[in-house]
Design brief:
Protein name: TetR/AcrR family transcriptional regulator
Distance between the termini: 48 Å
Number of helices: 9
Order of helices and strands: HHHHHHHHH
Radius of gyration: 19 Å
InterPro entries: DNA-bd_HTH_TetR-type_CS, Homeodomain-like_sf, HTH-type_Tx_Regulator, HTH_TetR
Helix content: over 70%
Structural class: mainly alpha
Low-confidence stretches: none
Organism: Cohnella ginsengisoli
Pfam families: TetR_N
Keywords: DNA-binding
Mean pLDDT: 86
Length: 195
Amino acid sequence: MVNQEDPRVLRTRQFIRAAFRDLLRRKGFDAITIKDIAQKATINRATFYAHFEDKYALLDEVTELAFDAMIPEQVAQAQAFTEDICDRLILATHRYIVDFYRNCRMDSHSMATLVDEKIKKMLQQTIARIFLKGDLPHGADKHRIQIMAAMTGSAIYGAAHFWLNVEEKDRTDVLVDLVRPYVMNGLGPYRHGDG
């Protein structure tokens, strides 16, 4: 097992991720082999496998790191799910989806499905963390919070993804104005921690 804190390990993983992202732009996920990634990263296949189980594990990490980087600090530190936090999440999710589809050849249905599921899960986790930081309404348990976070994340992700194909796709202000009331009204007492 490799030491994940070792600077050489971190640098090698960075080379692997950069090679993979470059190949995604040019080749498409299904056509990429471990040999391709290793050659592009100037490592051998054994080194790749010391860091990642397969290209799916690499895709998972690349997706997670890119999404985390796009979440604004205000959202990461939020103590309550306010309208401002909702707006920031809508915009960050939309920006991530646009960047992803612009930078990757999306000729792989399996890749799109994996990335979509990963982003929905991360969005749900981000929202659940915000809900759990606030004062929970009477009778709200962790299970209910997770359900509310799943519904909220699905609404945000679904709208942001759908927005890729509408005529006004550059008008993210319209997207926010459509989605925010739907999400905030649906949350009721969960949004500000009101009891």
